[in-house]
């Protein structure tokens, strides 16, 4: 393919909002209230952490929106960091997306989809004789292979859908999002309207273990909340395909994040009203239960379990699709500059980066086989908040470097709001190292593999003696 062909700007504000919300609402809205209850032992504190997570997410989104409005381009933060920092830092970010942040997100979402599907229709185990085969005693690629194969097939199918064109992928996300909104709305309406609900319980600050809530427990619980809020910045990845991106990206991010915060507060207040905190702690300890399913069963019985399982299927399908759609654009932008595998720079006949989709698909499938799903969400949040902090710090840097540049949107509450976001990101970084050292260590190792890869790509460029093409679409 001719890698001089350009992406087409076909996404308006409505589809921008769809991409933002579709990248956020996934498994966390159903699963994360239980681990938060296990950390905090108090329904009121669980709701406070959802609120705090939403506020911090909003602060990050408002800060990101200023940078996105100023520097909107395909690749999102990868394109921004070249202007704010340097090419090396931008590459490390892009490589972190590929090695863990986005591909692991795709893998874990697809795995939850597969688990939900198999809970509805039991499938005989595949290759059970190989279940104990391991790599270094850490990875068991054939354990639960029937679930993993389903997840892999979903990733391949959605990759094919998105290779047909950006509007095809965004159109599927729109249809799924409508179903998700209806489903979550029914849970809130019938849950709070049932005789089992006690809304006052949702705001009870008393702990079940009669111990005060610690600072570290709040941060650990917020890691779970942040997984549920994760994904709002992904719309920047498709900046080269958005109409009037300097206006529509900031607006889309702000509308999308406000919408998700409202939904999360309502639905989690419903879960807490339906299930005592001790029940939620038990759900977490059981390991194979989902809080939303137990909450809906409390007022709709076994039929409610079937309903919520279908809703989880639809939601994770939509979030997986939205993540696949957006993420591959960063690798495309990197490849155009010789900082990724060159084939990823090609556009297919549908004017989408088909080869970049394939690279992403292959690595996400490998991560499915790795089986490290219990660690993925905290690891992803640890990694991504490093870059949320870097983008927010960019607001201050760009105000000094480009003081007279037109800004379609200026961060609300500057400089206080961006400063709070930066300080919080630093605090979360160190707290995660203390309370989740394994997840922090794995995340750092995967990100730091980008250092030798950067020099390898640079050396390959020098050997080929090809000029580096830096394109902008602002």
Automatic annotation (TrEMBL):
It comes from the Bacteria. It is a multi-pass membrane protein. Keywords: Membrane, Transmembrane, Transmembrane helix. One of its GO terms (molecular function) is L-amino acid transmembrane transporter activity. The keyword Transmembrane applies. Pfam families: AA_permease_2. InterPro entries: AA/rel_permease1 (IPR002293), AminoAcid_Transporter (IPR050598). One of its GO terms (cellular component) is membrane. This is Amino acid permease.
